[in-house]
Amino acid sequence: MRPCYPVIDGHCDVLYKMYERSEIDFFDLHTAELDASYARLREGGVKLQFFAIFLPERIRSPRFDHYLEYAALFHERIASDPRMLCVKTRADLEAVWSGSRVGALLTLEGADALQDNPVYLRTLRELGVRMIGVTWNYGNWAADGVLEPRQGGFTRRGKKLIQDCNAMGILLDASHLSTRAFWDLAETSDRPFAATHSNAAAICGHPRNLDDEQLRELIRRDGRIGVTFVPWFVQDGGNADIDGILRHVEHICALGGERQLVFGSDFDGIDRWVAGMEHAGCYAQLADALSKRYDDELVRRMLAGNWYEYLYRYLPLT
Ligand SMILES: [Zn+2]
User: Domain 7-314 has what CATH class?
Assistant: First the structure.
């Protein structure tokens, strides 16, 4: 029998799907609507899942109350259930680890509606947001995303946001940032940051992936690199399988990233899947494939231990 490896997954878009379609029930044991439903997280051994607030593109002018609606959805329809535990502190992380509940950590992808307002930022923190990706693919008041034609970095106000996040204990996510914004973040943040769902550009040259210099910077600063299962970030053309994911793992390890490599599936944010990794329940198959190449301790690290150490160090104590 295969050993069951605990998993921490650094990115999913369950909230986005549930925001768009209110009939979806996260706890419905038979729902196939969610890649990362409660049942599938359990099946895959996921002990802690990050849930991103990501507004649909149809919302042209994101407002702060959209974030509040997402936070309400997260708490009311997912995190307040007795089977779940909302992870806001180191103590919560430890409770998830030693208990049977599934941890849920709230993140923000796209800070468009924060609009340089520290009260908004503090409110999000109160609501449980513990990590922010400042942009999605395009530019906003704070920084440029990876597909913004001008390819700028962080604005003055955006750098202030980085400092405010550092001061409030909110972690930062570099996935989706333009290359210049990535390096601005590296220069400005006094805490190691993560890229929750990005692969290695040396293996698959998609603009959402990170080049070796960026990967080395994340490794050098002891940030985290979340290998993701978006098929067109795994392999050119998107015809990817689990071996394709392993090529990114191998590359990041070859750069010295054994202790920084984590996973961030992007489940429920994709409509095509890596063969064999169609939903969170498939993590056991990835664990199997990893076990054939790496020793038990390293497999545990990659699937959860590296995320755990990072969060243990940087989540607020209480
Ligand atoms: Zn994303």
Answer: alpha beta
